[in-house]
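call fold(seq) -> tokens
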Amino acid sequence: MSMLKLLGVLIDYPQDELWQHGAELLAACDDEALPKARRGALGEFVQALLATDPLDAQDRWLQTFDRGRAMSLLLFEHIHGESRDRGQAMVDLIDAYRKNGFELDAKELPDYLPLLLEYLDQRPQAEARDWLHHVSHIVSLLAARAAERESPYALLFELLVEYGEGKFDLALLRRRVREEPRDDTIEAIDRTWEEEAVRFGPEAPADGCTPSTTARPGYVAPHSQVQP
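ret:
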């Protein structure tokens, strides 16, 4: 298992099947492309995950990524929000996937980070690094927010930024995000529900522009099919 595939699996919703592949995950941590210290830290993350009850790990994931938008794994959420530009950006991304034989067969949105990593895992390394470099400003913020919230997932985002050769000052970003109002508290979530109007009819937003909050497909089954 390559490093990008590993990071995508670890960032994704932890399905029960993940615990059946512990040896494979741990072996993938020993990637010579990573500095020795990073390999050790990644191995510790995997060991801690495997030592956690699946239900507890799944609840932690939901608390981290499914409450509020600041930690959303939908990349365009951080760029376009709910604007119409987001819909076109997703169409363009799907087209890029298809041009390289990557057909989506899941209900996930194309800008979902683990799905993007699955695609990049099948592309030349230079191309994958370039893609990650272009989104490193988003992933860097996710790393800083996760670190500020004392989430172990911070390590995974830092590794992605480093893989894409992105440059960021984690301490500076943490000071910046420390001033952000938290959007994952019960009070903040209640305010969001109260403020967002429900619209019906022709002016309602398209389904494709609505963030998905459904659980991911199983670890064993791939999210896509690469056509020969």
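The chain has one domain: 3-226.
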